[in-house]
Amino acid sequence: MKKRSFFERLSGSVPVTDDYDAFEDDVVPARRLAPSPSSQTGSGTPQIHSTYEDHEDVESEGQLPVDVYQTASEIVIRTFIAGVRADEINLSISRDMVVIEGARAERETIAESDYFIRELFWGTFSRTILLPQEVDVDNSSANAKDGLLTLILPKLDKAKQTKLRVKAG
Q1: How far apart are CA 4 and CA 26, in angstroms?
Q2: Does residue 52 contact residue 117 with C-beta atoms inside 8 Å?
Q3: How deeply is 139 buried, as exposed, middle or buried, from its count of CB atoms within 10 A (0-12, 13-18, 19+)?
Q4: Are 27 and 14 contacting, i.e. CB atoms less than 8 angstroms apart?
Q5: Does residue 19 or residue 97 have the better pLDDT?
Q6: Taking the complete model, does pTM exceed 0.90, yes or no?
Q7: Torsion-angle region of 87 (φ positive above 0: left; ψ -120 to 50: alpha; else: beta)
Q8: Which pLDDT band holds residue 118 (cuts at 50, 70, 90)?
Q9: Concatenated DSSP letters for 8-60?
Q10: Residue 73: per-residue pLDDT
Q11: pLDDT band at residue 141 using 50, 70 and 90 as cut-offs
């Protein structure tokens, strides 16, 4: 077993023919293309093949990465939705949960054999986030700017009390 180069460790790449085995290699990237040294065309140009299954066979729905944090009065959720129009996003908010759904469609068709590297996710995505505290659904807001979706969810104040008067009559 040979030691991986600095570049291979930094980029996470491993030559297809390498039998290097380490615990960090157990995490498989969503999609990576690499030249196959065994397949050459008659012109001596290497063919590019996927080191993983074709994208039609990979999980059909992507999971959206998010940042969730709180301020004194709000819970804030941020996620990148680059390539998706704001009207193509479906948001469902309840007092204790948020569901973000949408689809990122390729604008042009490119033959699989023309790709050297293919890492962008195209297709439907969704994310369900269980909130750590109940939120005020009616006063929540969502804003999309420069490919960043930001949801601001005001926290419900359970300590706040309201006095009710009993009406006679």
Answers
A1: 15
A2: no
A3: exposed
A4: no
A5: 97
A6: no
A7: alpha
A8: confident
A9: HHHHT---TT-----GGGGSPPS--EEEEEEEE-TTSPEEEEESS--TTTS-S
A10: 93
A11: very high
For residue 102, which of 66, 62, 137 has the smallest C-alpha distance?
62
Cβ-based burial of 2 (10 A; exposed 0-12, middle 13-18, buried ≥19): exposed
Angle at 125 (CA atoms; ends 122, 128), nearest 5 degrees: 160
pLDDT score for 6: 61
Structural domain spans, the chain: 6-50, 62-154
Distances (CA, A) of 119 to 28, 31, 125, 133, 157: 12, 6, 15, 35, 43
Residue 28 CA to its chain's centroid (Å): 15
Cα distance between residue 60 and residue 49, in whole Å: 20
Determine the CATH number of domain 62-154: 2.60.40.790
pLDDT bin (cut points 50, 70, 90) of residue 9 is: low
pLDDT at 8: 65
